[in-house]
Amino acid sequence: MAGRLVLALPVLLFLVLVGHCRGGKIGVCYGRNADDLPAPDKVAQLIQQQSIKYVRIYDTNIDVIKAFANTGVELMVGVPNSDLLAFSQYQSNVDTWLKNSILPYYPATMITYITVGAEVTESPVNVSALVVPAMRNVHTALKKAGLHKKITISSTHSLGILSRSFPPSAGAFNSSYAYFLKPMLEFLVEKQAPFMVDLYPYYAYQNSPSNVSLNYALFSPQSQAVIDPNTGLVYTNMFDAQVDSIFFALMALNFKTLKIMVTESGWPNKGATKETGATPENAQTYNTNLIRHVVNDSGTPAKPGEEIDVYIFSLFNENRKPGIESERNWGLYFPDQSSIYSLDWTGRGNVDVMTGANITSANGTWCIASANASETDLQNALNWACGPGNVDCSAIQPSQPCYQPDTLASHASYAFNSYYQQNGANVVACDFGGAGVRTTKDPSYDTCVYLAAGKMSTMNSTSLPARSGSSPHPSAKCFTPLLFTLSVLIAAVML
């Protein structure tokens, strides 16, 4: 018996690890305000082909819900603003809706979230007072059906719910929304539901390009960092700044335990003449970097390493939407299901913007620290590479192959090159605000092997990635609880 347990130990550890560390989720928004869209069953096939596991729709269209039956895709469905009055006034309305629109298709269709109202503060008709009563009635209906612990209820909001978002630490909710916001936050805490928000760095850039650089909006490594003067936290992208502004606003109201979920974020692939940032290249760059940011659990400066779930907006261009040109062009696919641009949903690949091909050639170049860079610039760039840049910096930790020489320039060179090679070995990936420089001489030495095109490091692959800053790498949070679990399993073996 003991022998069997010994053999099973690695399997048990693997299962525990997988169960404990799920990482941030990436989903996609499936809007249908367009002509000539594929039938829902075709859309469900497309989503499965891309291995997308999470989808948001904005209503409870029966054809769509049926199409996702037995697909393994988790569905977020919505109660439109137009239904809030009926849902808030009479419990019977909600009971009938649940009976007709949800129960016949559950659990074959894995409905996991219901959003009650969408960006109500942006609605031309003020329906915000109806949100919480409608949410409570939906919860009551779910409880009657025994589903209140399986389907989570929340409501989505725009960043406009804040009166201040900069600097992030000064994030504050608009006081005019207090009458419905406080009871809603109390409901979310009570039901252990997330605060849902739609975040668009594109608009921050488009509305104020003199204050928000394109690089900062796109997660580009050469963007100039922004320091929050109140906290000293360093922000290298607008997305993190927006998330943290919500976090600080929640904290100011003593709701700091609420999890934040981003129910929409993306970048338009086409815009009007003045919308110069709306291009397929920028859309691909933003969404690729956003996916990497999420699946690697980079977290934000205020909450480093904390997983966050994000839904990319959106699956298709929607030609019936009103407004400026970009409003109709946020899609990943044309109605014929052909890609507008390539996107790697795993967050691990590197895709050429124009061709969609995987990038593998570094043309015999490496990236190292510039001899002209100041120590401050090198340290900031190193912190970024080993943090938001998602570089595995375990090799430059004490006792590891690239720790010696223990100098800032040496450690930065290793991290810079790793980021450079992992991001296609293009010029901009070695910029680091001027702290990096390319070389044709392989900087590898002794047992310290620098990444090169098509050649992975021979470093111990079991080493944990680590950040150069004071915060542990997010992977560490997965392994710490395993120490106790391991001891329990070993004890079981000994018995």
UniProtKB/TrEMBL annotation:
Signal peptide start-end = 1-23
Which residues are in the X8 domain? 365-450
Q: Which reaction does it catalyse?
A: Hydrolysis of (1->3)-beta-D-glucosidic linkages in (1->3)-beta-D-glucans
User: Would I find Cell cycle among this entry's keywords?
Assistant: no
Q: Which residues cross the membrane?
A: none
Which SMART domains does the UniProt entry name for this protein? Answer: X8
**What is this protein's record name?**
glucan endo-1,3-beta-D-glucosidase
